[in-house]
Automatic annotation (TrEMBL):
SUPFAM superfamilies associated with the record: Fibronectin type III, Immunoglobulin
Protein name per Swiss-Prot or TrEMBL: Immunoglobulin I-set domain
InterPro entries: Cell_Adh-Cytoskel_Orgn, FN3_sf, Ig-like_dom, Ig-like_dom_sf, Ig-like_fold, Ig_I-set, Ig_sub, Ig_sub2
GO cellular component, one term: axon
Keyword annotations: Immunoglobulin domain, Repeat
Source organism (scientific name): Popillia japonica (Japanese beetle)
Amino acid sequence: MQDEDVTLGVGMDRRTFVIVWRKGTGLLSAGQQKISQDDRISLIHFNLQIRDIGHPDEGDYTCQIGDGSMGDLIHTIEILMPPSIQIIPPNGQITTRKGGPVSFECRANGNPPPTVQWSKKDGILPSGIQVQNGPLLSLVDVQRQHAGHAGVYQCTASNGIGQPVTSDIKLNVLYPPEVTVVRSWTNTGEGLEAKLDCLVHSDPPAEVTWYQDSFLLQPTDRRLMSQNGQTHSLTIRNIQLSDFGNYSCLVANSIGREKKYIELSGKPGPPIVTSPGYSDPTEYNLSWSVQSVFPILEVRILYRRILFDSCQPTVTNSWSVQSVFPILEVRILYRRILINASFHHPGQWHDLLVRPKQTYNSATSERRQSHIIKHLIPDSVYECLIQTKNQHGYGELSDLHQWFSSQKGRPLIHLSGCPKLRMESCLLMLTTIFSFFRFFF
């Protein structure tokens, strides 16, 4: 090890011979006379001692016997060194744009030569592994932090001498703004308060401006603009009728810009059907929830029965396949599908205008309602749309909802002219195993 003392012996009875010590071609001593000017070198009973050895002392040392009848004795000094690291770039910082390549280098020294490994603090490497061996780490198509590229990378070198050493490189990825709205539609009412949020990720940091329709908004006593971490908020107090409309947050930095939209409305939101996809044979308890600060004044329900075309093909549990060899195995893949326009001819819409009771959750502004649709035809498929109205008008339509007027879990629907139409699509994958014979002549 470095900085230790080493004594090289002659290894024989040296009293009657002249001993000469050399390093390479350089003469260190002859007999009891030291020739080297290095104060660290001394002779102790013809043995050569070197104090505080270092890298310059590595090499072969030859002990020559004066009578020439015996061979030379060669000592080799090799210094064992613990690992050391040089990071490229030396400042430990790399900044690059999203989508570009980047490389890190970790130059390690030591004896024996160290093993170098790369890892990523608080995560795995972008390649999906924990550790990568080698002095060079290259990343292709660098993404921003959520993709696992930006962050602190650590180089570790070890060779069994002393403790492993580490050094860090921080990768900063510059990318245009990425904006997510927490809610694209917000329901509120006059005299209340509404908060619109845009979640922003960008590097370098972005500037956020708010618009109502196409008009740039400035902070006022009623309009407050704030930031909490990555969330930028527009808070509107004491809502007035003129505050309803479309808002947008425009986010821009030196690399790019992005805009997201939020609607502030007093109208109800789209109803969400909470009823199951089946009903009793002749009636259906249709229930839904809707977000509305104000009471629901009336509900419009459109529903219709789906009429099946008697010429539509049916799926059966039998099939035919052409094969010289016997079928040894059959694989069947199936899934349930909703009836759509390619499988039915719709009937006439029934338009209901109802005013059902409602329950209200003030914490979420959610209202729940239900209505029983009667006089259904058993074993039929129905679909419906719901639209609700409050003092600001009708809101958006619900998604199309379908249900079956049959008992729960009944797998088949019996309709006139369409026997046993199954509500499933079926794909038959036939695996035929053939036997091949090879004849050798």
